[in-house]
Write a structure and sequence with these properties.
heterodimer; A: mainly alpha; B: alpha+beta; elongated
């Protein structure tokens, strides 16, 4: 097919790439505010480190591994096919049909890989060796994110011709499986292998800066327009549907989380509002363009309540998923992915909804159970794949270089011990004892 | 000479200051303090996890007075700081051996 540039779509995708990239520093604020003051810099640095490591990997072989031709039976793409992306042509662009050049597609997809890795860091707050995190970020992006992106979006095992082709085509518009289930499961595994923070569930570990958390949630929401509406690859009515649902489901999820807190704890909290926003964004991600207005309300509401309850699981089961990557991203990702099976509205008659060839209406929209079964299969596949791969990677890093920071660093503050900095003057108690040498 | 020290609810500070001024007090020292008495702090809830916060914010107010004024000043603070709720605070008086005014170097009651 000859490539015809569409400057409108291209302008939108350039913009959307910048929006999604902004989510990672936004996440740094969201997470940074939730930890104690002595480890906020390390927390934010894990997000920034993910940008550094994964951004390079993606341009060299990541995009090719995710969107190159099937190898290993559709588990991953050929990482050498577009190595360095210098020779990729616009006819080969992932977004060629929308008239968007290949390099724009490469950068847009890079931002997804970066934020997915950064999301995991919330599970390991205060206590992971920074060097181990850098190594983990690179290996995990290579062996887990890139294959998952290929399987779901690159025509691999979870695509239209994949393992569910006899039932229905899986729907994951913007990353319920690839991003959220994937990162959430990795967070769970890594938190368990790394072990609990010293004093977990004994000493208070309350968020040191809730305004940071709310600022982060706001930046995430803003960036998520690029994430969800950008996943249409075009500036059109379907992008509008994704955009509308990204507002609506998020509003409802925030209300759901606050209502749950009001009933359970007696007070609606600012941390709950920020968390509800993110839970709604996570849940609507896979469904953004495949459900109608009422489906978006249902998914947002269910996710807001379920995630508010799920953040208590770590105390029940005794794993220290410090900032609730499991409760928000794994549970929210599963919620959205599975609920598509009930609420998918992919037929005609709804302005802007989108579907892949072979996907079906949900159970509540007269499509029978095929889409639901398909969604459950891909969700479970993502859970198992991420769980097994992350276990192997984490155990290997633990054996080779160790995962955990020293107890001295953890108790005294990982910021000072590892980075040689403190975020706030009161923590360092430092005076200049020697002038800086010129 | 006496030192009257009051630990009060922060939101009563303006009333206490006004009452002390009305009682003829010309100077005082006010500082932020934290602590707890019988009410034992409060609880905060973050994502469903409850934290007991023992030390809660209070204001410490200190006034140096002549012996014969101590009871009246104490009563002025108590009257203005009173809200009737648990956690209103305490006021106590201790004797002071000597006071010096830094600017003039004078000692004793005339330095008050």
């Amino acid at each position: 097919m000859p490539f015809a540039l569409d400057s409108g779509n291209t302008a939108w995708m350039l913009t959307a790439s910048a929006l999604v990239l902004l989510m990672t520093p936004g996440l740094a604020f969201f997470y940074g505010g939730m930890v104690r003051g002595k480890s906020v810099l390390n927390m934010m640095m894990m997000s920034f480190a993910a940008m550094g490591v994964v951004g390079v990997i993606w341009m060299l072989y990541g995009y090719s591994g995710a969107f190159g031709s099937n190898v290993l039976g559709g588990l991953v793409g050929n990482p050498l096919e577009f190595f360095g992306v210098n020779t990729i042509t616009d006819e080969q662009s992932l977004m060629a049909a929308a008239g968007v050049p290949a390099l724009v597609a490469v950068v847009f997809q890079a931002t997804f890989a970066i934020i997915t890795v950064a999301l995991i860091s919330g599970a390991v707050a205060d206590r992971m060796k920074f060097s181990a995190w850098m190594v983990f970020a690179g290996i995990w992006a290579t062996l887990v994110y890139i294959p998952m992106a290929h399987m779901v979006w690159g025509g691999g095992l979870l695509g239209p011709d994949g393992i569910t082709s006899g039932i229905s085509t899986p729907i994951d518009f913007a990353g319920g499986t690839v991003v959220h289930i994937n990162a959430g499961m990795a967070g769970l595994v890594l938190a368990i292998i790394l072990g609990k923070r010293k004093g977990f569930n004994k000493e208070p570990m309350r968020p040191h800066n809730l305004p940071f958390v709310m600022l982060g949630a706001a930046l995430l929401w803003f960036g998520w327009f690029g994430f969800n509406a950008g996943s249409e690859f075009a500036a059109d009515g379907t992008a509008g549907r994704a955009w509308l649902n990204t507002v609506l489901a998020t509003c409802v999820a925030m209300l759901g989380w606050l209502a749950t807190e009001k009933v359970r704890d007696g007070r609606p909290t600012s941390l709950g509002a920020a968390s509800g926003v993110v839970a709604g964004l996570v849940a609507i991600t896979p469904a953004a363009a495949s459900v109608d207005t009422f489906g978006a309300i249902a998914i947002g509401g269910i996710a807001g309540v379920l995630c508010a309850l799920a953040v208590g699981l770590k105390y029940k089961f005794g794993y220290d998923d410090s900032l609730d990557v499991v409760g928000v991203h794994l549970v929210g990702g599963l919620t959205g992915t599975v609920l598509i099976g009930f609420f998918a509205h992919v037929g005609g008659g709804v302005n802007g909804t989108w579907y892949l060839d072979g996907s079906k209406n949900g159970l509540f929209y007269g499509g029978g159970a095929n889409q639901l079964v398909t969604q459950i299969i891909v969700a479970l596949f993502a859970v198992v794949f991420s769980g097994v791969m992350t276990t192997i990677i984490a155990l290997a890093i633990k054996a080779v270089m160790g995962l955990r920071a020293t107890e001295e660093a953890e108790v005294g503050g990982i910021d000072l011990a590892v980075h040689g900095e403190t975020a706030y003057e009161s923590l360092g108690g430092a005076r200049v004892t020697q002038e800086v040498k010129a | 000479m006496k030192l009257v020290t009051g630990i009060i609810q922060p939101h009563r500070l303006d009333e206490v200051k006004a009452a002390l001024e009305a009682a003829g007090v010309r100077g005082m020292t006010v500082s932020e303090a934290s602590g707890y008495g019988r009410q034992r702090g409060h609880t905060e809830v973050y994502r469903g996890a409850e934290y007991q916060v023992d030390l809660i914010p209070k204001v410490r107010i200190e006034v140096l007075v002549a012996d014969e004024d101590a009871v009246a000043i104490t009563d002025a603070i108590v009257g203005a700081a009173h809200s009737g709720k648990i956690g209103d605070g305490k006021v106590w008086t201790v004797p002071v051996e000597d006071v010096a005014r830094v600017r003039t170097g004078e000692h004793g009651p005339s330095a008050l």
